[in-house]
């Protein structure tokens, strides 16, 4: 199944390259300027701490104690492995081996569930009358029941969206924030699909389709998604440093 998921992601990526050509990929690399890279690293640091806090809270409820500092380091290692190895879940397996499978599964599942519900609510409700109030009420109820888990998940999801918006700005996208936000939410939902090559595949495919549907062009969508992938990879490099240190100590 793991290799089927990888092959599926590779197939999606191949179709994107076939439709838009290699130029958007080259444009994405050229657009990865220092400001965008620094912003991605800083934002990812916040989202990593948020995710580590969520994992720690869930693990504690399940009877496993993970110190916050250790959780942050483990999450950085996990993100780097997910961003560099096929399948996009090797890092989570690494965490599970070291700290137990059940808390890691609960952490990943909870984070994806909150992301899907929040993004779905925004996309479905849109500018409908009273939508903001309804969404705020739903969030308030969720926070009252699972405050730490929901709050940290929302911070993490928002951080990923902001990095995508940074990529869109660096790539020279002319659309307004109001137009880009639903596109970013769609692409982030696609990025969570377990059918990818280290995160690549559905993200670029949905970005190309969504940007084309919005009149911004499939090539521009591909450029933004690829640049997001580059920024996300660079932002996980602290995990590589931690893995190297751990290997040296071992």
How is the topology of this model organized?
Layout: H1 2-20, H2 23-31, H3 34-61, H4 68-84, H5 90-99, H6 101-125, H7 131-145, H8 147-170, H9 177-191, H10 202-213, H11 218-235, H12 237-249
Helix pairs in contact: 1-10, 2-11, 3-4, 3-6, 3-8, 3-11, 4-5, 4-12, 5-6, 6-7, 6-8, 6-9, 7-8, 8-9, 8-11, 9-10, 10-11
Order of helices and strands: HHHHHHHHHHHH
Structural class category: mainly alpha
Helical run tally: 12
Radius of gyration: 18 Å
How many β-strand runs? Answer: 0
Description of the molecule:
The protein has one domain (2-249). The chain has 12 helices and no strands. It has helices at 2-20, 23-31, 34-61, 68-84, 90-99, 101-125, 131-145, 147-170, 177-191, 202-213, 218-235, 237-249. The longest helix is centred in the first third of the chain and has 28 residues, at 34-61. It is found in: Cell membrane. Its main location: membrane.
Identify the notable features of this structure and list them briefly.
single chain, 250 residues, mainly alpha, globular, membrane, L-PG_synthase/AglD, cell membrane, transmembrane helix
């Amino acid at each position: 199944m793991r290799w089927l998921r990888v092959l599926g992601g590779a197939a999606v990526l191949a179709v994107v390259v076939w439709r838009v050509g290699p130029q958007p990929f080259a444009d994405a690399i050229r657009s990865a300027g220092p400001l965008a890279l620094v912003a991605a690293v800083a934002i990812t640091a916040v989202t990593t701490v948020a995710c580590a806090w969520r994992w720690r809270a869930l693990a504690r409820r399940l009877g496993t104690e993970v110190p916050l500092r250790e959780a942050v380091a483990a999450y950085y290692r996990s993100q780097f492995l997910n961003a560099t190895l096929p399948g996009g879940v090797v890092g989570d397996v690494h965490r599970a081996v070291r700290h137990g499978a059940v808390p890691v599964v609960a952490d990943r599942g909870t984070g994806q569930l909150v992301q899907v519900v929040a993004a779905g609510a925004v996309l479905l409700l849109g500018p409908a009358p009273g939508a903001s109030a309804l969404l705020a009420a739903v969030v308030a109820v969720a926070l009252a029941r699972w405050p730490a888990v929901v709050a940290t998940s929302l911070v993490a999801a928002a951080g990923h969206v902001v990095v995508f918006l940074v990529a869109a700005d660096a790539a020279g996208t002319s659309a307004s924030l109001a137009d880009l936000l639903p596109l970013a939410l769609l692409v982030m939902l696609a990025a969570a699909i377990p059918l990818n090559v280290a995160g690549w595949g559905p993200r670029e495919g949905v970005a190309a389709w969504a940007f084309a549907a919005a009149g911004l062009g499939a090539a521009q969508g591909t450029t933004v998604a690829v640049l997001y992938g580059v920024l996300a990879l660079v932002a996980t490099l602290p995990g590589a440093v931690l893995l190297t240190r751990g290997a040296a100590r071992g």
